[in-house]
């Protein structure tokens, strides 16, 4: 064993932008970027036409035979992952995001090259069962698994990860920026009212509809407040907010880092009622501004 106190990291990623097409966006739609998409040791992966053609049957069959399809897709992208590894690299560390192909390919490459494989799963409690067997294999095969909280550690143990391989590293948010709450409130329909703020990708499971229903109930009891959602839209949120509008409701979509910090400074309370989640960094960022958080 080696204890690392100082190191440089070379980063490979599938995307440089927020996306929601987890399966197609990491397979058939992921073409090589002409500029490689990266700088400062960041490389962007993409698959040539021949590889994407060979992916096609496994993408079509993915949801029916997910564990087998995941292994086949991982083998197809494995050569691209292997080409990233250089003699000075001493381990491969994968962050779970989207489907399992990149993690499994990274695991195969690490084993063949005799390198430790480290995984940060950002695990959600609902991720278990047949469809997630590929991910569970990556969890249980990793030499080290980095969990954000003791609760996540306990769930990983329940899924079969050896307790001695799990390290609770907690989490961290972005450094706070000086913020202007008035600048954000000026975007709201009733800027003088208290502000309930949601920050995150607008998936159904993150409690988007439940939060609006709760705000409606508050107003029915005479408690008036603005409700603002900031974060990338999804197909669900586009449909939902077409059908639900309120004069005190603002759906602002993607925002800059400065706008996010303005919103946090302006918030009376930050509310993210996800039904399942890893530990959200936005909680830490809200607390850094002294804001109460409802999860």
What does this structure look like?
With 295 residues, this protein is an alpha/beta fold. The chain has 2 domains: 158 residues, Rossmann fold; 114 residues, Glycogen Phosphorylase B (Rossmann fold), CATH 3.40.50. The strands form 3 sheets. It has a 5-stranded parallel sheet with strand order 9-8-7-10-11, with helices on both faces. Helix 3 runs parallel beside helix 4. The longest helix has 17 residues. It is globular. The model has no long low-confidence stretch (mean pLDDT 94).
- The rounded Rg comes to 21 Å
Count of DSSP strands: 11
Overall 3D form? globular
Largest sheet: 5 strands, parallel
Give the topology string: H per helix, E per strand.
EEHHEHEHEHEHEHEHEHEHE
User: What are the low-pLDDT stretches, counting only 5+ consecutive residues below 50?
Assistant: none
Can you tell me the CATH class of the largest domain?
Alpha Beta
Under CATH, the topology of the largest domain can be stated as Rossmann fold
- Range of helix content: 25-40%
Mean pLDDT: 94
């Amino acid at each position: 064993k080696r204890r690392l106190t100082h190191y440089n990291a070379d980063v490979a990623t599938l995307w440089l932008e927020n996306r929601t097409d987890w399966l197609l966006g990491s397979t058939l739609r992921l073409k090589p970027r002409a500029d490689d998409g990266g700088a400062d040791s960041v490389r962007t992966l993409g698959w040539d036409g021949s590889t994407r053609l060979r992916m096609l049957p496994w993408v079509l069959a993915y949801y029916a035979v997910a564990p087998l399809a995941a292994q086949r897709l991982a083998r197809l992208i494995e050569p691209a992952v292997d080409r990233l590894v250089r003699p000075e690299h001493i381990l491969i560390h994968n962050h779970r995001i989207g489907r399992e192909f990149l993690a499994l390919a990274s695991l195969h490459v690490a084993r063949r090259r005799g390198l430790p494989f480290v995984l940060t799963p950002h695990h959600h409690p609902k991720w278990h069962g047949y469809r997630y067997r590929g991910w569970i294999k990556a969890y249980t095969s990793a030499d080290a698994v980095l969990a954000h909280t003791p609760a996540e550690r306990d769930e990983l143990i329940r899924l079969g990860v050896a307790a001695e391989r799990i390290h609770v590293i907690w989490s961290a948010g972005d450094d706070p920026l000086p913020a202007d709450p008035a600048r954000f409130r000026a975007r709201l329909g009733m800027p003088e009212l208290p502000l309930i703020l949601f920050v995150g990708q607008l998936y159904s499971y993150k409690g988007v509809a439940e939060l609006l229903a709760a705000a409606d109930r508050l107003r029915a009891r005479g408690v008036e407040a603005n409700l603002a959602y900031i974060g990338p839209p999804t197909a669900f949120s586009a449909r939902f907010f077409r059908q639900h509008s309120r004069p005190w409701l603002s759906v602002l979509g993607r925002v800059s880092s400065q706008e996010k910090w303005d919103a946090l400074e302006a918030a009376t309370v930050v509310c993210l009622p996800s039904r399942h989640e890893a530990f959200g960094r936005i909680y830490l960022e809200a607390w850094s501004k002294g804001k109460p958080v409802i999860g």
